[in-house]
Amino acid sequence: PFLCETCGKRFPKKDNLTRHVKNHSPIKPFVCDCCGMTFRKKGNLIAHCTVHNNVKPFACELCDKKFRVKGQLTRHHLVHTQEKPFMCEVCNQRYADKSTLKSHLFTHTELKPHVCDVCQERFAKRRTLRLHYYCHTGRPHPCEFCDKKFQSTSHLKRHLLTHTREKPFVCEVCDKRFAQRCSYRAHFYRMHTNERRHYCDICNKSFTERGNLKKHYAVHFK
């Protein structure tokens, strides 16, 4: 088997390992021209771009809702079934979303595959590493409309949507619109699933919203 030196995951083929290794890279070369979101894979960008048009080819057979991508329809089905198919093998806690389970699993392991290339401090989550980088780089991209600053131009572009009042992200359950994808996802899981899916990889405290987790991290990164 082929071993990922970053996280220890094994793959039967070298091609699978090559694709997997890209997940550990902070580089996201594919940028959405509409909202500034960035992606590692071109396919993810293409799927995202459907957010900015009105084509909804995926219909729910249980109600009259339609969706732009198949993944949204899959998540929507959980509203009808209340199913939580992803179970933690350690504590048997169940989740509706695979990514939530993956975040939860870090509470049971000491594995910290993401390393700061400046000071060599290690983190369980890539997101925590990005927050840590602020200690070294600051936030060089200021908003021209308010006093906020951002680490990257893509983050700045997403923030600018809050000033232009454009809301390209639509909840597939209640049709509420959001300027940022993170706000939409926070709304979906808080209002329609109530899962505490955001975990602090330092103290294991959990939150329903990523914004609350970010505020909490200030306790550790003073």
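(the above was protein one; protein two follows)
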Amino acid sequence: MLNQEEIVRQQNFEKSSRISIERHDTMKLIPLFLRDLSLNSHSLQVKPSVYLREMLLSTDERLEQLVKPLQKQQGNTPFLAEDHKDFRVMPPVVIFQSFTPGKQYNATFTVRNTSESSKFLSLDIKPNKLFSVTYLSKVCTRLAPGISLHFLVKFSPQSEQDCGYIVSLATENQPVRVPVLGLGPRPLVNFPDFVDLKQTLVKVPCSKSFYVKNIGQVPAAFSMMCEKPFSVTPEKIILDVGKIAMITIHFEADVVDDYFRHMTVRFETGEEMSVELTSSSKNGKIWLDTSEVYFEDTYMGLTKQKKVTLYNDSEVTIKFSWLKFGTAQEDLNELNKLKEGFKFVKVNETLRCNKLEYNDVIHENDHARVYSRICNDETQLLSTKDLLFSNTNFEIFPMEGVLWP
């Protein structure tokens, strides 16, 4: 008959040995794959080549990599065997990947007694339809100092979905738990690590296009986000297996500088890759033949004209417009003021809704959706065209246009 302590140990063992079918967080596994657990999975920037390399490894290649030295942070880490005062597990996690349903895969792990005295260690696990664990070396219940026991894990996948298991080994104190993970196929798209756009003039856009292909086994749905002054089209793509899509990176700078930014590729399943973007901007040889225009006294009701010539001695075609303000920062400040004005309009509409609802014209929620959509649309449509030069006494023609080299 089992005593109370043995019953609790048995309950803990059964709880820890259940099969998990939840999808494993790939971004939390990447630091483990790179053998550096000090990396923060939330701010980790993974190059596409690194991501593809790690996801395309076979089970044997992954296990060979897992036995390499690991730079570990303080405390226990997800997906790794918990630190134990008497035993050391190597590798600290068993991972099966790139597997095919219906086939059997084998992996081994070792448990070594790191204490200075003999310790009790026993494998008491019931086989299940996916995983089974057996001794590889001679079975013994007590392990001498410095001696290791070898175990064989057999994995028989029935589908390509993620799965997990905890191998629990009973000891005199806390059990030794060894995580076993099965990684199903991940979305794989062959993005470049680096995209370099040619140097361009300030406020003159340039772009570069490239093709990507879904080289994985599952459809890939992903979005792309660039740090300014870069942008990307399209921003969202769903790519079936083997299909190709064209991506275009755009660049337009407001000031002269060298730019180093990143584009984040985020899959719907949570994986992320980071593509480096570089470009630079310079001032072009574009000038006016005068910095001021002086008009002589003019009779009321009559007009006078002066001609100003704009020269383009650069190598690109430019677009020009006459604006109210002298710098891009002043333009931006004015646009922000206009956007703030739309917020006040939104507040006024909220107050106006009380009267409309009282007269049974429209419900509060419906009215909120209408004016919120209108305000958002108007805010997005704001551009420098709303800041074109305007004066009651002066007029410029043409107000905007295109100037060839």
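Reviewer note on protein two: The longest helix spans residues 328-358.
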